[in-house]
Write a structure and sequence with these properties.
Number of strands of chain A: 30
Strand content of chain A: 15-25%
Oligomer: homodimer
Shape of chain A: globular
Mean pLDDT of chain A: 95
Low-confidence stretches of chain A: 1-5, 656-660
Distance between the termini of chain A: 66 Å
Helix content of chain A: 25-40%
Number of helices of chain A: 15
Structural class of chain A: alpha/beta
Largest interface: A-B, 59 and 62 residues
Chain lengths: 660, 660
C-alpha cells in the first residue's frame, strides 16, 4: 500500500468562495441560512478526485463532512445549513480516489473490448486495502468481491458488472482509501445572526421630545404613550439617541450656539455629568427602573429598543476625574477637546485610545455594553466608530457576542468606503450607507449593485436612512413631500434594513439651518421639540402601508436578490427582489423627479422570473391596490409626483397562468 | 512620550497589488522593470499617515525604504526598479505621523486666525521627541526650534512660518517618530528574468531531418548548415525535440503504427535505450561534444538552443533496471505503461511520482536539468508538466534558478485553464496557450484580454504557437497559405513570445493523417523528413519581414499594452501595442477569413495614443511599405486573403504633426 508522502501531495484547493481577504474576516449569515461553498480543486494527471466540505459549530471538536459536487472547469460546490446563533467554521478536504479512477478507466477499457484481466487484479488490491477500515459485515462482503475478482470461475463480464455496479461503488465510497489528501490550510468563519440582522425597520426618536402637547422635558413614561403610534406604522426597532446625563461645561445652545441659555438641554451626545456617565440615565428622562419598564412595554408592541453608543465624554463626565489617563492632556494642563480644525467641539472630550492604560479603557467600555445588555438592550447603534481604533471594535464585538450572539451592532460610520467596509468586516452587524446622498438612477444602480451583487454582500448589511438628526439632504429640502415619499419607498424596498428619524420624517420637516451644512433649522439635537404627530399632512398612513408591504412580502426581507431593470427614462428607476422559489416577487418603479410626471417603458427579462413571453400576467400595485394586465417584456409606466411617485408591484405568476 | 502599544495598533494595510493568491506566489518581471505597488492604507480618525514601500534583493538583510505617494480613496502608490536577475522581496509599512498631523491642523487654525499658543508647545514636544535620533548637527538645529517655540520673544506668525516651512518638514521627515507602526505581514516576491523571458522568437525543428538533400539520419553537423536559414528568418531560439537515445521495445512505426519496421527511427519522446537515458545523446545525431559545439555555433548566429524535457521513459531506459521503484508495477509483474483509456502508449513508461523513493527521483530529475545546463543549455521546453506533481515543479524550478536565474522554462501544458495558470504561478517562465485553437474575433479578444489585462499578466507569459508537431489545426488545414499568413501575423503580434514548428510551417504543410485527430499525415514524430526549404512557395521571406518588424518596433516586444479596437466587420480584428512613452506605436489589422476579401471601418480612440482628432496622421504598413494618410477616429481598411490578409501599421505621430 502506497503511503502518503510529502512528495505525493498532489491535490490543489484554491479559489475558495466565500472567503473574505484570505480568510482574515468571517462571512455573515442568518440563522437557518444555507452556506454554499465553492472551490477550484484539481490534481495533476487524470486521476479522479473526491472532495468534501467540512463544517462545525464553534467549540465542537468534530467536523461534519459533506461530499461536494463537481460543477465544471475544476469547480466544486457543497453547502450546509447554520441552525444556531454564534460562529461556525468551514474548510475543505480532497483526495485522489484511486478506486474511482480505476473504475473509470476499467469502464472505458471494457467499452473498447480490451483485455482487462490484470485490471481486475488491481481492483482486488484496491478493495483489499479498503478492508482495513470497515465493519465486520462489510469485511465479509468485500472479501467475497476480492475472491470473485481472483476467481477463474467468474467471467470477465460478470466481474466488470460487479465492480462497476452501485453496490461496490457505495461500499467503496463508505471506506475511501485517501491518497494525497489535501486539506485547505484555512478554517473560515461564519457569524450567524438572528433574523433582525437582515430585516429590520427602525424609528429614531428623541425621548425628551415626547411630552405630547407640552413644552416640558419628555420622560420614558411619555414615550410609552408614543409606542402605539410607532408600532402602528409598522416599525420594529425604536432607537434612542444617548439617554445619559448631559454635561454642563461648554454646553451648546439652540442651533449649536457656543453659549447655552440656562434652560437649554444640551446635546445628548455630550455624555456625562455629576449625575453619572455611560451607565447612568439622564434624571429628566426617568430612572433606570423606568427605562427597564419602558423596554418591556415596547416589547409588547413588537418594538425592540436600540441604544446609542457614543464613546466620548463631556468635560463633566466622571471619567475625567477618575481616569485622567484616558484623555489627552495639552501642555497647558487642559484636556484636548474634539476638533476638526477649524471646527471646535469644546463640549466633547474624545477618549485617548493611545493611552498606556488602553487595556483598562477597553474593559471599561465593554462593561458599558454589558451593563445595557443587563438592562435588556440587544441592539446598539454605534456613533462614529471610525474615530476609534479598528482593533478595539473587533475585540469588543467578538467579546460581547461570545455570550450574547443575538446582539446587533449598527455602525454609524459616514466615512470613506474602505473604512466603512472594514468596520463591517470587523464585526458590525449592520452599517449606515451612502444611500442618504444617492439620488440619481446611475449612482443608485451602481452603489446597490456593489452592495448586493459582489463579495460585499458577504459581510456588509446595509441599513438605509433617508434622514438622520444630522442630515437633512438637499433632495428632501428641495423636493418636499413628493421627495419624502420617493426616498421612503427607495429606502424601504432597496434595503431590507432601513430607518427614519421621526417625527421629522413623517412630518416632512425640510427646513435647513443654512445653505452650507445639512443641519436642520432648530435641530432637535440642541432643544426640546413639540411635534404635531396628528398633522393631516403626516406620511403616517403611507409609511404604515409601505411597512405592511415589507412585512407581507418576503422578497423585500433580504437584499441578495436585488436586480435593476432598464427603463428608457433616466428619471424612472426600476428594480425587483424575489425569494429563491419565486413565490414572492416584487417589482418597484420610482419616479426620481419630484417635480414632473415621468413615463417610460420598462424592460423585464421574463424568463428570469418564471414568466411566459406569450402570456399576459398581472401586476398588482400594493400602494394603490390597482392591478394591471401586462404582456411581454416591455411595459409602459407613468408616475406623477403630485399623486404617488412610485409603484410597488407584486407580480402574480400563478394567477396569470391559470387564467390562460 | 507615547509608547507604541498593541492597543495603539491603528493602521490598516490591505488590498495590496500586485499580490498573487495572498502572496502565495511571486509576480514576474524582467530585469530593468519598474515594480509599481499599490495598497489601501488608512487609520481611524483624521490623523495623517506616512507610508513606505520596502524592498530588497533576496539574501540582503536590509530593506530599502521608498516613500509612497497618496493617490485618492485611501490608495497609495510606490515603485522600485529590479536591476538584477533572481528574486526580490517587497512589503509595506505605515505609521501615524503625529508631526504632519499637527502641522496640518496648525495650518488650518492659523488660517482661521485661532489662538495657537498651546499648539506651539505641542509642536515643541514633538520636535523634542524626534531629537532622540538625529546627528549632532541636526540636534542643535532642532533644539533651537524648540527654544523658539517656547520663546515669548518670537511672534506667533514667525513661529507658524518656521514650523510650517520646508526646512522643518524636511528634517522632521528625516527623523520620523513612528507611532502605531503597521507592517504588512507578508513579504511578497518578484522573480526577475532576463529579457528573453518576455520577448523571444522560437523555431522548433527535428535535428534528424536536417540532412539536406539526403534521406539519411541528420546530425548536429547537418544542423549547423541550417543555422543561417533559421537566423536569417529572424528567430532567436532554436528548439529541439528530445535528442536522447530512443527505445526499441514497442517502438512506434510511421503514422503511429503500433509495429515499427526495422528502419523506423521511433519517436524522440520514447526516451532511453541501452545507449543511455536523459543525460545521453542519440548516437545517430552525434556526440555530446558535437552538441556542445553546435550550441556555440548557434550562438554565433544569435540563436539560443532550447531542449525538450520529457520526464518519461521508454521500456529500455536504464532507469527501469536501475530504479524499478520509480515505476508502477502491475499485479502481473509488468510495468504500467502510459495510457489514457482506451488509448495505449506501450512505448512510454511514466515515472511513478507516488513512489516512496520520491526524494531520490526528484534529485535525479534535477540532475538532468543541471547536466544540460552544464552543456550550455539555458532554455527548457517542458513536455506535459501537468501530468507530474505540482510540488515537484515548484521545487525543481526554484532549485535550478537559485544558481542559474537566467534559465527559462516553457510549460507545454495544453490542459484546463486553472492548471495552466497554476503551473505558471509555480515558476514556469513562459507557457503555451490556447491560441492554437482561437480563430474567431470574440474568442481572440476575450482570451488575450484575460491574459494581458488582468492579474494573469503578473505570472503567466504567453508563448503563441500556430502549429506544433502534435497539432495541425483545422484552420491551417482548411485555409492553406492565407491561413498560415494570418496565423503567423496574429502569433507574432499578439504574442511578444511566439514560435513555429518548421519547416512544416513555412512550407504550409497542411495534410492531416485523418479527420479525427490533429496529427500531421506522415508526422515527423515517427519518421525522417526531407523538407524542400528552398520551395518557391515558402513563407520564409514573409516570416523574415514579420520578425524584422518585431525586432525594430519595441511596442511588439511586450504584451502588457495590448488593446483591441472595434471594427464593424466580425472577420476583421484590430489591436494595438505601444511603449509607455508612445515612441513605438503599432496597429495590427487582420482578415480572419482566408477565403474572401473583407473590408470595414476601424475605430480608434485617438486621445489614448496621443493623436489629434482634427489633424491627419500617417500609418505605414510595415508589411508592404505603403503609407496611408488617415484622419479622425474612423478609418477604412480592406484586406484580401489572395494578397496579404494583414496590415502591421506603424502610426507616425511626429510626422503628421510636423506636416500640418
Amino acid at each position: 500500500m502506497m503511503e502518503h508522502t510529502e512528495g505525493g501531495n498532489r491535490v490543489i484547493i484554491e479559489g475558495v468562495s466565500p472567503e473574505i481577504d484570505g480568510g482574515r474576516f468571517p462571512i455573515k449569515r442568518i440563522i437557518g441560512d444555507k452556506v454554499v461553498v465553492e472551490a477550484d480543486i484539481f490534481t495533476d494527471g487524470h486521476d479522479v478526485l473526491s472532495v468534501a466540505l467540512l463544517y462545525r459549530k464553534e467549540g465542537d471538536p468534530n467536523w461534519i463532512e459533506i461530499p461536494m459536487e463537481f460543477l465544471a472547469n475544476d469547480r466544486w460546490r457543497g453547502s450546509f445549513v447554520v441552525s444556531e446563533l454564534g460562529q461556525y467554521q468551514y474548510t475543505l478536504t480532497a483526495w485522489v480516489d484511486r478506486f474511482k479512477t480505476w473504475q473509470q478507466n476499467l469502464a472505458k477499457k471494457v467499452e473498447a473490448k480490451q483485455d482487462v484481466s490484470v485490471d481486475f487484479l488491481e481492483g482486488a488490491q484496491l478493495i483489499e486495502e479498503a478492508i482495513m477500515q470497515p465493519t465486520k459485515r462489510d469485511t465479509k462482503t468485500m472479501q467475497d468481491w476480492v475472491a470473485s475478482l481472483h476467481s477463474s470461475q467468474v467471467s470477465a463480464s460478470a466481474k466488470a458488472k460487479l465492480v462497476l455496479g452501485d453496490r461496490v461503488t457505495a461500499v467503496m465510497t463508505r471506506y475511501p482509501v485517501r491518497r494525497s489528501v489535501a486539506t485547505y490550510p484555512r478554517e473560515l468563519t461564519v457569524v450567524v445572526d438572528r433574523e433582525k440582522a437582515r430585516f429590520s425597520t427602525w424609528y429614531e426618536m428623541f425621548p425628551r421630545s415626547c411630552a405630547s402637547g407640552s413644552s416640558r422635558h419628555g420622560t420614558f413614561e411619555d414615550c410609552e404613550e408614543r409606542l402605539s403610534y410607532i408600532a402602528e406604522m409598522g416599525f420594529d426597532v425604536l432607537y434612542f439617541p444617548p439617554i445619559h446625563p448631559i454635561g454642563q461645561t461648554s454646553r451648546k445652545g439652540k442651533n449649536n450656539d457656543p453659549v447655552a441659555k440656562a434652560d437649554d438641554p444640551g446635546t445628548p451626545w455630550a455624555i456625562g455629568s455629576e449625575e453619572g456617565g455611560h451607565k447612568a440615565v439622564h434624571p429628566q428622562l426617568g430612572t433606570l427602573d423606568d427605562f427597564r419598564r419602558f423596554i418591556d412595554k415596547a416589547r409588547e408592541y413588537g418594538l425592540e429598543v436600540a441604544l446609542d453608543i457614543a464613546f466620548q465624554c463631556s468635560p463633566d463626565h466622571p471619567y475625567v476625574k477618575e481616569h485622567p489617563e484616558w484623555f489627552r492632556w495639552r501642555p497647558d494642563g487642559t484636556v484636548q477637546y474634539a476638533e476638526n480644525p477649524p471646527k471646535k467641539y469644546q463640549d466633547i472630550y474624545p477618549l485617548e485610545f493611545e493611552t498606556e492604560s488602553w487595556q483598562e479603557l477597553w474593559e471599561e467600555l465593554k462593561s458599558v455594553i454589558l451593563f445595557w445588555i443587563e438592562q435588556g438592550v440587544r441592539i446598539f447603534r454605534v456613533d462614529n466608530p471610525h474615530t476609534k481604533p479598528f482593533a478595539f471594535w473587533e475585540w469588543l464585538i467578538s467579546e460581547v457576542k461570545k455570550d450574547c450572539p443575538e446582539v446587533i451592532f449598527l455602525a454609524e460610520a459616514f466615512t470613506r468606503p474602505k473604512i466603512m467596509y472594514l468596520l463591517a468586516k470587523l464585526g458590525f452587524t449592520q452599517s449606515y450607507t451612502y444611500f442618504t446622498w444617492r439620488n440619481i438612477k446611475w449612482e443608485l444602480t451602481q452603489y446597490f449593485t456593489e452592495l448586493t451583487q459582489t463579495d460585499v454582500r458577504e459581510f456588509f448589511r446595509p441599513n438605509l436612512w433617508p434622514n438622520t438628526p444630522d442630515i437633512l439632504s438637499d433632495y428632501l429640502r428641495d423636493g418636499g413631500r413628493p421627495a419624502f415619499i420617493t426616498r421612503l419607498v427607495l429606502a424601504a424596498t432597496l434595503g431590507a434594513n432601513y430607518g427614519i428619524y421621526g417625527p421629522a420624517f413623517e412630518l416632512c420637516e425640510n427646513r435647513r439651518k443654512d445653505k452650507e451644512s445639512e443641519e436642520y433649522l432648530n435641530s432637535e439635537k440642541y432643544e426640546l421639540k413639540q411635534w404635531n404627530i396628528k398633522s393631516r399632512n403626516s406620511l403616517k398612513d403611507f409609511i404604515t402601508r409601505v411597512n405592511g408591504i415589507r412585512r407581507e412580502n418576503p422578497a423585500l426581507q433580504s437584499d441578495l436578490s436585488l436586480c435593476f431593470h432598464p427603463v428608457d427614462n433616466d428619471q424612472l428607476i426600476c428594480f425587483s427582489k424575489r425569494t429563491e422559489d419565486l413565490s414572492s416577487l416584487i417589482l418597484v418603479v420610482v419616479n426620481l423627479d419630484y417635480r414632473y410626471k415621468q413615463s417610460g417603458w420598462i424592460e423585464l427579462s421574463l424568463e428570469e422570473v418564471g414568466l411566459d413571453n406569450n402570456r399576459p400576467y398581472e401586476v398588482s400595485d400594493l400602494l394603490t391596490d390597482v392591478t394591471y394586465r401586462w404582456q411581454g417584456s416591455r411595459n409602459y409606466v407613468e408616475l406623477d409626483p403630485r399623486k404617488i411617485p412610485a409603484h410597488i408591484f407584486r407580480i402574480n405568476r400563478g394567477i396569470a397562468k391559470s387564467k390562460n
